[in-house]
Amino acid sequence: MRKIRFRGLNAKGQWEYGYVVREQFCAYDEVLWPECNNKDFLTYKKADGDVLGADSTIISSGYKIHRDGQQSSVWAKRDTVGQYTGLKDSKGTEIYEGDILNIAGTSWEIIFSFCMFKVSDGFVTQALTEAVCPAKPEAEIIGNIYENPKASESPPSP
Known about the structure:
mainly beta
């Protein structure tokens, strides 16, 4: 059975791992995490559902990562939260949504679409399975779309 696990970048740009919960941002959080009171971490909405600018304080919510094996949690940049696929690359590194794999000289981005993990090179999209990725000895993570988006571009042919 696949382990349900998420990751997300915290305010210091470090990865946090655990399970994820969508929470409202409140005055208590402003004291503990003042750097997270911005649009990278929160979505601002009016009570009727219309999205407002980041200067609004009516309703704000975002994602917290509850750290593995700890009783603490931390706010994560909402656009960096991604789920573990249940697979590992050729070096044994866990593969998450948003990672970029190099498979036989082609860069593939891990995406989640229509209730399944897929790999996409920008032209072709296919299901992410053991047959596509970790079974190939050359499949390895070369980055992710959050820290080095240029890694998703295929390397030049020799």
